[in-house]
User: Fold AI-2E family transporter from Nibrella viscosa.
Amino acid sequence: MGISSLGMNNIYTPRQQRILLIASLLILGGFIIYGLGQYVSGILGAGILFVVFRPWFHYLVHKRRWNRVVATIGLMIFAFFVIILPFLVLSIMLVDRIQYYSRNTDQILGLVQKLEKLTRIRITDQNNIRSLVQQGATWASRQFPSVLSGLLDFIVIIGLLFFAMYFLFMEEEKFIKGLRRYLPFFPNTVDELSEDLKNMVNANVVGQALVSIVQGVLTGLTLWIFGVPDAAFWGTVGFFMAFIPVLGTPLVWGPAGIITISQGNTTNGVGILLVGIIVIVNIDNLLRIMLAKRMGDVHPFVTLAGIIIGVPIFGILGLVIGPLLLSYFMVLMKVFERQNRRIHQEAVNVRNEEAAESVTGGPGVKPDATP
Assistant:
């Protein structure tokens, strides 16, 4: 008995078979993603770096005629030393200082007491502040990649990232062809989607990273010039805070200025606040306007909502991945809307043609003009 004859006895209709097949694919895909768990960030990171470095790859391989393997390995080395390693060092330094302050809460309590004297407002009980600081330090430490406590996980994530990045570049044509084949969109829609996603990556990753670096450096320099202790640490905090729209670095230099005034250094405190309001904030706005014109604009609400979604899932990497995923969702919704509009317009055109044919008596037949 052949397979075709067995198919005649199948209890499912073709439509039900199609629905069950799609459901099976979604369930298996969900199990795969769940199994990867914390390593998903490595795969997503490889995709982000692929989009960021693809123009460089095209320039080196297709214009300068570099060997594909050499160009790919070169980009991987550049990504490690320029992006991943500095980010890791900043994270370790920040976690170390956070843990220090969580163990030595007397310094923070002293600052709170000075603020209470300055504002004449009692903030809260000291025991509550100590508990809040320790809980906040524990939460913050969990969001950063820890080499000491999770060395194996860190190696697997980085290894997976570079493994995926290597094969994305080495088999670029096959990967793009596969996307065009399996994505449920029209060919021209895929081109629009690719351009939109590239702009989103540039705006969320490259643009935001540049703004955060400048903001972190300016914050650290300002605090150092006006004699604030641990200026490098607070500059690093400013770098990560700059990813948060609207609030950002004012969460760092604002309290620093107020605390400095409460310590009796009114000139330095006012100087920090003036530099923050006049220089840091305006440079931040100017950079965002310039980058929005060149790389694409992302609404602050999208960034903030993406951070809220991404940080609990991906840790500190959620500052980048969260807004990016939310932006991708919005792009896909726009693509879905355009594609449905096109299908609807094609259906309307077909109905109009059929109506015209019914009036003329068939295709190509002109109506009789005589009365």
In short: The two ends are 66 Å apart (CA to CA). The chain has a mean pLDDT of 75.
